[in-house]
Amino acid sequence: MIGRDILKELEDIVGAENLLTSRASLLCYSYDAAGQSYIPEAVALPANPDEVSRIVRLANKFKFPIVPRGAGSGFSGGSVPLKNGVVIHLSRLNKILEIDTENLIAVVEPCVVTGIFQDAVEKLGLFYPPDPASLKFSTMGGNASTGAGGPRAVKYGVTRDYILGMEVVTPTGEIIRTGGKTVKRATGYDLTRLMIGSEGTLGIITKLIIRLIPLPEAKKTMTAIFGSAEDAARSVSDIIKSRIVPTTLELLDKNSLACVKGNLGIDLPEGTGAMLLIEIDGDPLILDKQTKRIREVCIVNNSMEFRVAANKEEADALWKARRGASPSMLKFWPGKISEDIVVPRSRIPEMIRRLDAIAERHSLTIASFGHAGDGNLHVNIKVDKKSEEEMKRAEEAIKEIFRATVELEGAISGEHGIGISKAPYLRMQLSDAEIEVMKGIKKALDPNNILNPGKIFG
After folding, report:
1. Is 418 helix (H, G, I), strand (E, B) or coil?
2. Intra-chain end-to-end CA distance of the chain, in Å
3. Residue 372 CB: number of other CB atoms within 10 A?
4. What is the mean pLDDT of the chain?
């Protein structure tokens, strides 16, 4: 329990107006998109790295847990205060500090919203490719902490590929700087990569150095409709085998389309079983040639219909529908369970067959959509959470989904992290030896286990 003396010290650090203790305020920081709720004892809103450091040192002194938090938009429970304690909400660290157009880098604080950052650099003719579906509200620090990806990962990679360095407050309160402003750096261990994807268990990010690239000159957006998800999945592999790497290759199956079709702005032909949303970018002179080749590949794989967006407005409407797939599905399936898996791109048709078999075996409805270009699928199970029997069937289905994923040489999380929701399944993916190495790193950096305890390892 956090007593009045600790609250007074926290107040001295951040100011009375930046320490929240009312029941109503605490409830706002008790959950994320995973849906599990744990109420903190206080929420501190520091203004700078020094205040973060002082809070962490206080936590070590009195042995209370702290949980770093950005937008709280994660799907794995990584930012919920599982052990109560104090939430460090980094919302005041929200500035773009530098955009260097000569060296193609930027420096940002962790609570800069990803979409706002992208807009800022694009106005200068630069490009930050990572684009999680939540980019309109998720933050750069949260994306780094979970190793976020997005549709453009198939061509451009994920968040970790664009972080050159960080400023981090360690679990014992030191302020360290990892990496730097150079692309090459071979001086000691790569602490930047260690922090990326660590879900706030190894350090609190207070600054990020971001690598940028030139903004592509042009892009084309197209859709291909198929009678089955397997035909669509085969097209994904065949497009890349034809030596074209699209910016995005997104798949929505029949059940996903049923939830988003009202927002697509196009009519789907009878018998639609899946849709690919494809985008290419680069030199305008080669885009028409690539579009023609993609159309040919889709037709060979039984595409029922192939369209190229006529203008930016039509393309934007398609992307709005795709990025809104999860919330749209939540409207129709309020009790849905969402999982994030990834398999090698060539194994997607087999994964889809296995998902269909799992759904049939457990009498469940499963919808899949996601970044088929890099093998990352978001699997959604329709359930009535008030039905104990149905929840039991769903839990068995999840185990089978993860087992199939590992058997197909994939991973039980592609971009959402482990948090608390996937911690029970970690040993399906990792060996005891691998987990012990990770635990050893955690213990070495966080001897008092005060930073986001209970996450990843359970």
Report:
1. coil
2. 21
3. 30
4. 95
For 329-377, the pLDDT digits (tens) are 888 888 899 999 999 999 999 999 999 999 999 999 999 999 999 999 9
**How far is C-alpha 85 from the chain's CA centre?**
25
What angle, rounded to 10 degrees, do the helices at 388-407 and 348-361 form? Answer: 160
DSSP 217-267: SEEEEEEEEESSHHHHHHHHHHHHHTT---SEEEEEEHHHHHHHHHHHSSP
Distance CA 458, CA 341 (A): 19
Number of neighbouring beta carbons within 10 Å of residue 312: 10
Rounded Cα distance between 6 and 82, Å, is 20
Strand order in the sheet with 303-308: 303-308, 218-226, 274-282, 248-253, 365-371, 376-382, 337-342
Strands 126-127 and 105-108, sheet pairing: unpaired
- Using a cut of 0.90, tell me whether the model's pTM lies above it: yes
In angstroms, the CA 406 to CA 409 distance is 5
CA 175 to CA 57: how far, in whole Å?
A: 11
pLDDT confidence band for 327 (50 / 70 / 90): confident
Strands 337-342 and 303-308: unpaired
CB-based contacts of 39, cutoff 8 Å, min separation 6: 26, 27, 30, 81, 84
Q: Please provide residue 170's backbone torsions phi and psi, each rounded to the nearest 5 degrees.
A: -75, 170
Asked if 16 and 45 touch (Cβ cutoff 8 Å), the reply is: no
The percentage of residues in the chain with a pLDDT greater than 70, rounded to a whole number, is: 100
Tens of pLDDT, residues 367-413: 999 999 999 999 999 999 899 999 999 999 999 999 999 999 999 99
| Mean of pLDDT values over 243-258 | 94
Return d(Cα 210, Cα 196) in angstroms, integer: 13
Q: CA-CA distance, 66 to 452, in Å (whole number)? A: 6
Q: How far apart are CA 115 and CA 419, in angstroms?
A: 24
Give the number of residues written for the chain: 458
Structural domains present in the chain: 4-89 (3.30.43.10), 96-214 (3.30.465.10), 218-316 (3.30.70.3450), 326-407 (3.30.70.2740)
